[in-house]
Each structure stands twice: as C-alpha cells, then as structure tokens.
C-alpha cells in the first residue's frame, strides 16, 4: 500500500484543481512539452491498490485509461491487476524486459494539506511511492502525476481507507483523460494498441 508519494522533481511542476474546466488540456500540454524529441516506448504505471479507497486512484486511472484504448502507450496497473508496494519491483523488471528504453509516466495517490485536496500535480522526474513502508521501494517514472486525495499528518492508513470514493473516481477519470490527450498528440510512425500487462499473479508475489 502506498501511503504517501515523495516527489523527486528534476525541473518543472504544474498543479491544478481537478474540477477546473481547463485542467486536462493545460496539464496534458505541459506534459507534452516534457516528452523526449526522439521516439520512445511510452509506458504508464498506475500505482496503488483497490483495498484502500484513497489508494485506488492509480488502479482506477489505469482501468479508465485502458477503456480509452490509447494507441501509443502500454498500461500497467488496473483494478484487476494492480501495481502496488509488494510487487512494484517485479513490475519494474517486467517493464524493462518488455520495453526497450521505456519512457515511464507514473501515477499515484498522495496525501497533502487541506487546501491541496483535489489537486492533480504533474512533475518532471520520478516519484518514490510507499514512503511510510519500512522496506525501500524504487523510484518510478520519467514524469509523474499525483492526485491529492486526502489530508496528511495523522493516522494516514485510516485516512486513506476512509477517503470518499467520489473524489477518487472523479480525479482518476480526469487523469486518464489527461494521459489520453497526450497519447492523441503522439504521431510516431509505429502505432500499436495499448496493452494491459497482467503477467504477475497476486499469489505469486
């Protein structure tokens, strides 16, 4: 379970309330400006678990994004096949095995200040999920998108578990739409359907 994401931004960051009408367009355009000039294999890693309402932002995003069928991106982390703390290393190995020189967009939930709840934050660089867990977890992503789903600072496991599903669903749909807008701007010659990787089994971790 990923309690809080520590951001490791190299340069730029943009944040907007998910209910702002222009949010998807503004953030997608900003992320497009961070993409590499040369073609890469684009991979979206949506981190989290459906066993905690607040932490379901990632797998919900992955599920909604898969339903939009992006043409240039592979999607890891859905409600059916989540990417979470206990299998993150395995999925990272799987991604680098399946994709040559992947460019990774990581998605995760986080907790923040009261006035930050409902904001979607996109940054260059990687994020480090599961900061509250004892074992170290690898940093993930060339770019990352986080959604502030609730307030941090006290009994964070309980806070995540008691987060309102409505805000998590709404934010996940907006993040999926944002990433899909990015996918629509990719015009590389090789076009293939997005795939959801489900090679790892929960009971094998």
UniProtKB/TrEMBL annotation:
Transmembrane segments: none annotated. Keywords: Hydrolase, Protease. GO terms for biological process: proteolysis. It comes from the Bacteria. Coiled coil: none annotated. One of its GO terms (molecular function) is peptidase activity. This is Spore protease YyaC. It comes from Ornithinibacillus caprae.
């Amino acid at each position: 379970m990923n309690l809080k994401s520590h951001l490791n931004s190299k340069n730029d960051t943009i944040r907007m309330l998910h209910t702002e009408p222009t949010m998807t367009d503004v953030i997608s355009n900003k992320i497009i400006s961070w993409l590499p000039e040369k073609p890469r294999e684009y991979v979206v890693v949506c981190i989290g678990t459906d066993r905690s309402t607040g932490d379901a932002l990632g797998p919900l995003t992955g599920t909604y994004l898969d339903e939009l069928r992006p043409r240039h991106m592979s999607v890891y982390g859905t409600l059916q096949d989540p990417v979470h703390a206990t299998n993150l290393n395995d999925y990272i190995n799987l991604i680098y095995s399946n994709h040559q020189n992947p460019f990774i967009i990581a998605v995760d939930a986080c907790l923040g200040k009261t006035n930050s709840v409902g904001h979607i934050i996109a940054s260059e660089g990687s994020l480090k999920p599961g900061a509250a867990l004892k074992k170290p977890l690898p940093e993930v992503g060339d770019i990352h998108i986080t959604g502030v789903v609730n307030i941090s600072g006290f009994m964070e496991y309980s806070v995540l578990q008691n987060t309102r599903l409505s805000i998590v669903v709404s934010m996940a749909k907006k993040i999926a739409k944002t990433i899909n807008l990015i996918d629509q701007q990719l015009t590389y010659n090789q076009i293939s359907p997005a795939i959801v990787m489900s090679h790892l089994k929960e009971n094998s971790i």
